[in-house]
Write a structure and sequence with these properties.
Distance between the termini: 28 Å
Helix content: 25-40%
Order of helices and strands: EEEEHEHH
Largest sheet: 5 strands, mixed
Structural class: alpha+beta
Number of strands: 5
Radius of gyration: 13 Å
Oligomer: single chain
Strand order of the largest sheet: 1-2-3-4-5
Shape: globular
Number of helices: 3
Length: 117
């Protein structure tokens, strides 16, 4: 599905959300955290698109921006979210793969973020 050009994406780092807006309303979110020590990898935990916005490319736009944001910050992404992991496999040119060690550490640090469960 082609990504929707009308989607505006904003990072709410304080709350660990990358939010897509369409027509002024929240259309979807990636819930994430930043690994310690800083600057650490960005860890995508959940990607959720509101039902009325499904099928419009919102999730893909969010994940693409998540990887772009990490690249701008000079860090990797650990896609614990199944959607983000699948997207990354389909777009290896935009989504550098995290090492198995980094993934294990992200899974361990996820335990420190009960708000994401």
């Amino acid at each position: 599905m082609a990504e929707n050009a009308a989607v505006e994406i904003r990072d709410d780092r304080e709350h660990g959300n990358l939010v897509a807006y369409e027509g002024g309303e929240s259309a979807g979110t990636i819930a994430y955290f930043v690994m310690d020590p800083a600057p650490g990898a960005l860890v995508a935990v959940h990607t959720v698109v509101r039902p009325e916005h499904e099928g419009k490319g919102v999730a893909g736009a969010l994940v693409r921006e998540f990887y772009a944001m990490a690249a701008r910050e000079g860090v990797l992404v650990v896609p614990l979210c199944p959607y983000a992991a699948t997207w990354a496999k389909r777009h290896p040119d935009e989504a550098p793969e995290a090492s198995a060690e980094l993934v294990r550490e992200a899974e361990r640090q996820l335990g420190h973020h009960p708000e994401l469960f």
